[in-house]
Design brief:
Number of strands: 7
Distance between the termini: 71 Å
Largest sheet: 5 strands, mixed
Structural class: alpha+beta
Oligomer: single chain
């Protein structure tokens, strides 16, 4: 087989496969059509067929009426052209009689018939007005008649009255015959064209009438067929599905909850079967849902107990420090240096308590969608430097190194909230590097965004903990390692960053530390 043959055969098979794939979808769509819609559709089809038949009938009658009108007009043109020809022949006969015999009676006949020519030419022009082809032919005919009378007949009579012999010469006679024959040919052209137009109109009208009759009979046959098919469809689509639903209902009443109905048939039957299946399935789902709810309740109870334990532990430690050092200041005399040391510890632990309470309040606001922001343009690089200076004096075992930006890093954000985010990242870098080390902080513009990153040399994050690292109250292996915290800082920080339209992420390797970063758009205002 040639390649050309292959090219011709493959689309045919593809079309068959495409039609085969479309059949189930078409059947499913037809099955979901409601009974009311089917009745309305069948009625609409019948109405459309009847209306189309009557419309075609009316249009055909209208065309026949137009054809009749045009036929009458053709008759007028034919009659007027024949009358004009007859009048012209009478004028020519009178002219010939006078020229050949000199009898004045022929001259009187010429003068009696000549006034009939203008009305006859006007009648032909009126009947052909607006019909482009005929109008041109009639104009030529009228011009020929007028030229015959004005340029030949009248001058010839004048010559005959002065010198009859000259008027009877062969040249004069031949010229008259030539003009008359030309006019008669023009009349023949007008009549032939009009007959052709009339025949075409009659043929078109006959064809339209035949088509109207055929369409009317076809519409009548299709209407009868539609009525029969719709009756059969109602019997098939209603009786059997209703009987099937009745039997399934008896099975459910007998305790068999696994019974299901095929969701087929018209929309009403389909919806009934779907509702029945949903009712039966909901009983099974209810059992699974209750089991899942019980599991979630147990998990919630466990998390609540763990949260209470974490909060009580996290709050108790700084509170004990505050109370202990406050008691020492109240009960023991201390020198000024010791007093300042105790006050510094009290202030640090108070800030720690304030941070814990603030994180809890922020979590609550985020859950309620009430996180308040006051975005203003400011230099994020300066804020990073400020937070680095604050954290440098909090740990003797950590060195915080800042790689400052080469220029201002202006963003539009809530300055206090961004300070909270940077503080959380620095605090976590110190907290999760219990052996100390260098904490590297960088602020720079990357790919059109301001990026702040904090890198530590701490314990890193295990692979199992990474998917939930930004989950509220999740601490993973950090809690088991004795590192404090409630697991709120990162969750709150990411919510704050994303509320500003930014994004936050991290990279980590167990035993080699982590780097947390966030990005905000550069302010262009």
């Amino acid at each position: 087989m040639s390649p050309a043959a292959d090219i011709q055969i493959e689309p045919v098979h593809a079309g068959r496969f495409a039609r085969a794939r479309r059949l189930p979808a078409i059947r499913a769509f037809g099955a979901r059509v409601p009974l009311v819609a089917r009745i309305a559709l069948a009625s609409s089809l019948l109405a459309v067929l009847v209306a189309a038949a009557f419309t075609i009938l009316v249009l055909t009658l209208s065309d026949l009426r137009v054809t009749t009108s045009q036929a009458n007009r053709s008759k007028d043109i034919t009659s007027a052209a024949l009358v004009l020809e007859q009048d012209l022949l009478q004028v020519d006969a009178a002219l010939r009689g006078y020229v050949n015999t000199g009898d004045r009676r022929f001259l009187r006949a010429f003068r009696d018939v000549r006034p009939d020519l203008p009305p006859a030419t006007a009648a032909v022009e009126r009947s052909a007005a607006g019909r482009e082809g005929q109008e041109l032919r009639v104009r030529r005919l009228v011009t020929g008649v007028r030229q015959y009378v004005d340029d030949y007949a009248v001058p010839l009579i004048g010559i005959a009255e002065v010198n009859p012999a000259v008027a009877r010469t062969p040249v004069a006679v031949t010229e008259g015959r030539r003009r008359i024959e030309g006019i008669r040919r023009q009349v023949t052209q007008v009549l032939t064209a009009e007959n052709n137009l009339a025949s075409a109109r009659v043929s078109s009208a006959t064809s339209q009438a035949n088509r109207a009759i055929v369409f009317g009979l076809a519409a009548l046959g299709i209407s009868v067929l539609l009525v029969l098919l719709f009756g059969l469809e109602l019997s098939r689509a209603v009786a059997h599905p209703v009987r099937r639903v009745s039997e399934a209902a008896k099975d459910v009443a007998g305790g068999d909850l696994s019974v299901r109905l095929p969701e087929q048939g018209p929309a009403e039957v389909h919806d009934l079967a779907s509702s029945f299946n949903e009712m039966a399935a909901s009983l099974e789902r209810s059992k699974h849902e209750l089991e899942e709810q019980n599991r979630q309740l147990r998990e919630s109870e466990r998390l609540r107990s763990e949260l209470i334990s974490v909060i009580s532990h996290e709050v108790r430690t700084p509170l004990a420090c505050v109370l202990g050092y406050t008691s020492l200041l109240q009960t023991r005399p201390v020198d000024e240096a010791t007093r300042q040391e105790y006050l510094s510890i009290i202030a640090d632990e108070s800030r720690r308590l304030e941070g814990l309470v603030g994180d809890l309040v922020d979590v609550r606001r985020i859950e309620q969608g009430r996180l308040e922001l006051d975005p203003q343009p400011f230099n994020l690089g300066a804020l990073v430097e400020e937070q680095v200076r604050i954290f440098k004096g909090r740990s003797d075992r950590h060195t915080i190194q800042l790689d400052p930006a080469s220029g201002p890093l202006v963003v539009r954000a809530d300055r206090n909230r961004m300070a909270q985010v940077i503080a959380n990242l620095l605090g976590n870098a110190v907290k999760y590097s219990p052996d100390g080390g260098v904490v590297e902080v960088e602020a720079a513009v990357r790919n059109g965004d301001v990026r702040v990153s904090v890198r530590d040399q701490g314990i890193g994050i295990p692979d199992a903990d990474r998917p939930r690292i930004f989950t509220k109250f999740f601490r993973g292996s950090a809690g088991a390692g004795g590192i404090g915290g409630m697991g709120l800082g990162l969750a709150v920080s990411r919510e704050i960053v994303e509320a500003h339209g930014g994004r936050m992420g991290f990279e980590s390797k167990v035993g080699s530390g982590s780097v947390f970063w966030f990005e905000l758009s550069v302010n262009t205002e």
